[in-house]
Specification:
This protein is of the alpha/beta class. It has 9 helices and 13 strands. β1, α1 (12-23) and β2 (27-32) form a beta-alpha-beta unit. The longest helix is centred in the N-terminal third of the chain and has 22 residues, at 87-108. Bound molecules: nicotinamide-adenine-dinucleotide and uridine-5'-diphosphate.
Length: 316
């Protein structure tokens, strides 16, 4: 089968995507600068003949002598902690990096898949969010380095499609969790799981009544693998519409991990969206896809992964 280029393949989603593509008999080239990804996420793949790794920053000239069938662009800091630490790099990845990978797709006639985000909807007035909603983003707030980079990346992707006929797909990914997350990425699921298994207080920001809808990474990756197969250039929401508030999530993680931890309340970050839930009608109809993993079972698997990581056991 053809070559799949996974930019950002050493990150959380990328490590899962590379494994899924290899398991379905594809050759995989992982390109990553390791700014927020980890060598250890791809260590066990390094010896496989179908896998290659290129240490490269997508914002720099790429000069790659490869002809991928599909280019997945996952390369961007993604957790709020990471993109607030790397604001300029995040803007550059979404803008210049996406441009470079689109040029490669145009030259090699590859299908280009952009990992966009539910953050393009900002703090939404419409609930759940359908793809037709244009969003409510603060263009100069601290989160804008990520939100606006992704909005620009979507615009650039559609411009290549309209101008050059490049075959493109745009996945608007909602909060995803599971194995290969970094325990220190600052996201809510990694923080709560790590805190719970170490008996530390779970840090709920604000009053914990804000909501998110969490998708298990295996479900997301299945949809990402199907996207190149359908002829649909416009954005598609990918996520699990089962919505939960953050305080309930904390209580659930404490219960599942049989932890003695309690909850502590910290200030809500600036511009933190109050609600978020995907309308996945479009994904259901064009991909015949539906997330299958329940939050309960997905959290059990994620907690097992973090426990193994805490013991220094490589889980692969
Ligand atoms: P991650 O930080 O774990 O992975 C991103 C990877 O990209 C890392 O390995 C990092 O080193 C690499 N990278 C960043 N900038 C780069 C650059 N300039 N050149 C080369 N490599 C670079 O994040 P993730 O959660 O795996 O997210 C993957 C993609 O999915 C991101 O584009 C993110 O915006 C998108 N997404 C993720 C979620 C989620 O909940 N995980 C939600 C919405 C969108
Ligand atoms: N959050 C929290 N405690 C944490 C980390 C995050 O209460 O330790 C909250 C955060 O304020 C947000 C939600 O959990 O309301 C999801 O945060 P995350 O960083 O995982 O993703 P976001 O959807 O904000 O990008």
């Amino acid at each position: 089968m053809g070559l799949m280029l996974v930019a950002g393949g050493a990150g959380f989603v990328g490590a899962n995507l590379c494994r899924k593509l290899l398991a379905t008999s594809h050759e995989v080239c992982c390109l990553d600068s390791l700014v927020t990804g980890r060598q250890s996420n791809i260590e066990s793949l390094r010896g496989l003949p179908a896998f290659t790794f290129i240490g490269r920053d997508i914002t720099q000239p790429l000069d790659l002598d490869i002809r991928p069938e599909v280019i997945f662009n996952l390369a961007s800091p993604a957790s709020p902690r990471d993109y607030l630490r790397h604001p300029i790099e995040t803007l550059a990845a979404g803008a210049f990096g996406t441009h470079r990978l689109l040029e490669l797709a145009r030259r090699t006639r590859a299908i280009f898949v952009l990992a966009s985000t539910s953050e393009v909807y900002g703090d939404p007035e419409i609930h759940p969010q359908p793809e037709a909603y244009w969003g409510r983003v603060n263009p100069i707030g601290p989160r804008s380095v990520y939100d606006e980079a992704k909005r620009f990346a979507e615009a650039m992707t559609m411009a290549f499609h309209r101008e050059y006929g490049t075959r493109v797909r745009i996945a608007r990914i909602f909060n995803t969790y599971g194995p290969f997350m970094r325990p220190d990425d600052g996201r809510v699921v990694s923080n709560f799981c790590w805190q719970a298994i170490h008996g530390l207080p779970l840090t709920v920001y604000g009053d914990g009544r804000q909501t998110r809808s969490f998708c298990y990474v295996a479900d997301l990756v299945e949809a990402l693998c199907q996207l190149p197969e359908v002829d649909h250039a416009a954005p598609v929401n990918l996520g699990n519409p089962a919505e939960t508030d953050i305080l309930s999530l904390a209580e659930r993680i404490i219960a599942i991990s049989s932890s003695q931890s309690r909850v502590t309340f910290l200030p809500l970050p600036t511009d933190d969206p109050r609600i978020r839930c995907p309308d996945i009608q479009l994904a259901r109809s064009i991909l015949a896809w539906e997330p299958r993993m329940s939050l309960e079972e997905g959290l059990k698997q994620t907690i097992a992964y973090f426990r193994a990581l805490a013991r220094g056991v490589v889980t692969d």
